[in-house]
Amino acid sequence: MIKIDIENLLKNIENFKAGDRLELTGTIYTARDQAHKRISKLVELKKELPFDLKNAVVYYCGPCPKSPDRIIGSCGPTTSSRMDVFTPLMLDRGVKILIGKGNRSAEVYKSIKKNKAIYLAATGGAGALISKKVKKAELIAFEDLGPEAVYKLYVENFPLIVVIDCFGNNVFERN
């Protein structure tokens, strides 16, 4: 397990290979289907975005409501392929780290390589455990979307696996 902060991951993205296990610390943004749809519309209209896409980390997650004693509710990954239609646009605008679960389309795979980005997987079904790695949570956009709103999270030692590295190596394509 490699403990690393987001800034160092970004600076050394080429050193991380498909299959590497990480514990990531830093700021990430949640965005699911409807948030992606709105963000792409804002890009199309050249309007202000809810967060800077350059070097951003996007987590495909819709947090559950939290109890009063928690920072956030369960926040496991959602199936990444649902965002595939929007992903090349996000990567072309500077997103460098994607977090979700499951394999990606050929178009996303090519866009990850082209943009020297990286796709990481969080463990599906472990949302309650993952939520303990979230140290701060702030709703920043699209509150009307409920769990699909965009949240800014600060995570510590967030457990992930490199699924597709910036060279295009993919754990789903290994023998």
Approximate strand percentage: 25-35%
Summed up, the helix count is 5
Calculate the terminal CA-CA distance, rounded to whole Å.
22 Å
CATH architect. name: Alpha-Beta Barrel
Envelope shape = globular
Classify the secondary structure makeup into a structural class: alpha/beta
Radius of gyration, in Å, reads 15 Å
Work out the number of β strands: 7
Percent helix: 10-25%
Major pleated sheet: 5 strands, mixed, barrel
Strand order of the largest sheet: 2-3-4-5-7
What does this structure look like?
Helix content is 22%, strand content 27%. It starts with a strand and ends in an 11-residue tail after the last strand. The protein has helices at residues 6-11, 33-44, 87-92, 106-114, 127-131, and strands at 2-5, 21-30, 57-59, 97-100, 118-121, 134-141, 150-164. The chain is globular and about 40 Å long. α2 links the parallel β2 and β3. It has five helices and seven strands. It has a single domain (2-173), classed as Fe-S hydro-lyase, tartrate dehydratase beta-type, catalytic domain (fumarase). 39% of the residues are buried. The protein has a five-stranded mixed beta barrel. The protein has 175 residues and is an alpha/beta fold. The mean pLDDT is 94. The longest helix has 12 residues, at 33-44.
